[in-house]
Amino acid sequence: MDQSNISWSELYAARTKVQKRYRKIWDVPIARRYSTVIHKYGHDGAQVLEVGAGGRALQNRLKKWWPNTQYKSYDIDLNTEQDFYELDDISGVYEMIYMIEVIEHVRPEIAKQILTKCYEVMAPGGLLFVTTPNIYYPPNYLRDATHITPWCYDELGAVSCMAGFELKSIYRLYSDSFWGKLLHRVLFYPVHKALGIDFAKHLLLVARKPVAPKA
User: Fold this and answer.
1) Side-by-side strand order, sheet with 94-100
2) Which of 99, 161, 180, 199: CA 20 to 30 A from 173?
3) Inter-residue contact 67 to 45 (CB < 8 Å)
4) Confidence at 2, pLDDT banded by 50, 70, 90
5) Global pTM value
6) Segment holding 74, helix H or strand E
7) Are 30 and 181 in contact (CB under 8 A)?
8) How many angstroms separate the first and last alpha carbons of the chain?
9) What pLDDT digit, counting tens, does each position of 22-46 carry?
10) In 10 A of CB 198, how many CB atoms?
11) pLDDT averaged over the chain?
12) 17 with 40: CB under 8 angstroms?
């Protein structure tokens, strides 16, 4: 894969487009969990790829929901069992691709390369799901020394668009008790906005590969 630096002017232009949709972090809607969102879009028998799969825990969840899921995985860790260990070796065509807490562990140019590969092996109309720590909730990003790139919501959307995807949605992920929701989403909400510190710990991007126009 090409190791050249990412185009910052291209990133800025794409980021500006995302900002027209979500002007501030508070404009990004809330979902409870990433699993809630992916369950909404999934179906039985789908061809799926997990990027940065680690212990492949997601496979068990998908199989529980949809027993006929066709699951493949990619990770560079040779101590884990994967279908692919090199990005260039990934083959097949997938309807769903998942990157769960991965993109923050690589530099922006590598992130674009990974997403470009995802685009190449994605079926037209297929969906990409990417989660990452919400930098507006600093402890969740700063607590891990292996985190390399803090992705703001607009830059996360931008880099997916630079890889060819269409931005479908971005969510802030927040799950709490009734009283926790009441405190953060109602009583403390003005304080969060004033300090610029969110209560949602993660972001979830959903992007789509465009369907080729009919001849």
Assistant:
1) 30-31, 166-173, 202-208, 122-133, 94-100, 47-51, 70-74
2) 161
3) no
4) very low
5) 0.90
6) strand 70-74
7) no
8) 32
9) 999 999 999 999 999 999 999 999 9
10) 23
11) 90
12) no
